[in-house]
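Narrative summary of target 7.
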Amino acid sequence: MTLKLSYPATAEDYRARARARLPRFLFDYLDGGATDEQTLRANETEWDGIKLRQRVLIDVDQVDTTSTLAGETCDMPVVLAPLGLAGMMARRGEVQAARSAEAAGIPFTLSTVGICPVEEVQTSVSRAAWFQLYMIRDRARIEALLDKAWAAGCRTLVFTVDLPQPGMRHRDFRNGLSSSGARAKALKAVQLLSRPGWLWDVAVRGGPLNFGNLSDVVPNAGDLDAFKSWIDAQFDPTVTWADIEWLRRHWKGTLLLKGILDGEDARQAVSVGADGIIVSNHGGRQLDGVASGASKLPEIVAAVGSETELLVDGGIRSGVDIFRALALGARGVMIGRPWAWALAGGGEAGLNNLLASLQQELRLAMTLTGVTRIADIGTDQLDRNSNPEPGKLGEQQ
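Modeled conformation, tokenized:
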């Protein structure tokens, strides 16, 4: 009853609404992480440990949240992260998210394994989407996807480097999403029937529910089991830095590498020609037990922060978290689950509201720490007496 009578105000509020509206296997696919989900939890809690330095009696009448990310002017330093199956969280979900991002003045990133093809997304907005890519064994398919994204107008490529094989996600196994056979199909069917609203709005009115960017090469692209078999066979554990050099030669636009979590890897990314790095552990969905983005960001800033553009993702849930990331040295952040929760729980209007709330929270954090421009946010806005030394955030108790 409380859910129906209250206004959602935070990412957590929209998470509760998404849980109530999505079939269980879809909600857990979105919400879950690898194995015991230790890294998933650390991604959120370790931002909480970073304390800000409040300042007073400073003229903060004109606070400006605009910034530049990958050469684009943004109304705030936030990017909607790539998210597989996003078109199943709401009707033609990637299209709705792209429209919302454009209204908020920020970039949207389309996943290779999204539901809506890049052409459909791009024709729905005037702002060029970013395109996310995995390295798969079929290099001809990679080149075709690059050409497809470029022809649609994409000029920023987000290449995910931390997925040589999919992580162990126990929630997906329990719910039948990563399982095959009659029992798994029956389990998913029961979960689908428990959400008739989703069935009508998304499955019936929002079809076709296939992997739009790959529908011409994946047998039965609308069948999750068939797609999983194909993609599992296509993930390439032999990829090395030489393949990134190959990619750099084939992509004429901006190239960002997503999934860097080590200073040595960050230096290598710069040396092979990446234009930027996204500090990320894949939302805690790959290797459980690795450090959070918050704890690794200072190390990577120290290694390459003066040489390249850094973004960070993982566990960012508020405008204050965005401010924390900027204070640690990031140029901007990516958010994933929060935008999908908002879309699933409140549609395009819900996502519009969440993004407006994040911007207002960021503006208020700037106001109360005494800065009026994004470029002025740095370590001076951190409480030196409460925070660990840079590079030691992961050691907090």
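The chain has a mean pLDDT of 91.
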